[in-house]
Structures
1.
Amino acid sequence: MSGSISCRGTLRAANLGTISGTIAAAQIRTLNAAAIDGATILAGAYLGSDGELAGRDPPRTHSAPARFWALTVRNSISASFIGAGVNPVDGIFGDGDDTLAGNGSIKSLTVRRGLDALTKFESGAFPRYAHLPTKTTTANNSQFVVL
């Protein structure tokens, strides 16, 4: 999947190959992927009518409270941003000035072959452990930013 998927409601379940585009939904229940490479995945965000983050066509991207229940990746994640309830104050996700748009949480995360140092997660809450591929504590881990 290299384009954009935007859902104003709940994305209940998606089983995809390699994701390299943008997925944005009010809520995400279950997202399964073969791999994630250079992607942006957002729960609590809506894309504008042009399908782009911070697009020019109304309505523009906006953020809201969100839950991301489960992300499972069969291979690895590289150079990607994954967030729930993130407000990118200046329109850029993961640049250090993001705030929380109400409640946001990522409940479960499994990445069977790990993730690279460029991948970042932002949310109001994370599970105590993520499986990356081993059980990894999310607290005090620079790749998991609690807003």
Note: The CA atoms of residues 20 and 39 lie 4 Å apart.
2.
Amino acid sequence: MDEYPEVHQKNKHSSPRPLSTLNFNTYKILTCHSILTFILMLGNLSLACSTNFSCQNFLPSPGYLGCFRGHDRVFIASCTLSSFVLPIFFTTTYINFNTRFSEVKKKTFVLLSLVVCISLSMLSLFDEVISVHYFPIEHIYRLSSSSFIVCSVILISLIFNELLILQVSLKESEKNWFFGLKILVFTIASLFIFDFFQWKFAFGDPRSIFNENAQAATEWSIFALSVFLPPYISKFYRESTLNFSLKIGKNPEVELTDISN
């Protein structure tokens, strides 16, 4: 696998101006975010089952809790937090693959990343508003949820396709990681297909595999696996760190950047 170039900073002056630097380790941030989101949503479900619902008879889905008064706030907070954290994942992915992406793929990746982040925050808000007030915006909610799912699937497909091309040059440990990614993506895709049939047949015989509780369990499984997908993918990025630097002082001098192999 090709090594990424090292970037060395060279200053024009012997005494450079002080820098205020903020470092973000992509894998650690995404892992902490996924754990926090999982705890919030699982805690919200546990609270719902112990107070408002008898979950043995009726298991509320993630979307149902997102519009249920009192439990919707956790859903909104989780989606809003994700809409701010996911750009870190998309930025790191773009940096690692932009030399391999064509111009069309670059523009597609950037556009779909923006749509995912915006639609995620919108669908959580509209889900709550529709349940409380009568507004003719249900079509906007459906558009937001559909945009989020479709764009996410396309983005994962783009990443997965690039990794398929690179798999011949992966190290042994990376091949094991990629095999685990294949299983994870295949499982999520299978659950999505099963959930699609649940939406069509879930209101039939409650003793069949297509029923409301099975549908909710499927969606909770999709959520549990999908929330850990970004940090798992980011393990491939060699513990990438995003650095944000702000130069202190007026009229800062321009720094020269030397890129060497």
Note: The chain has a mean pLDDT of 79.
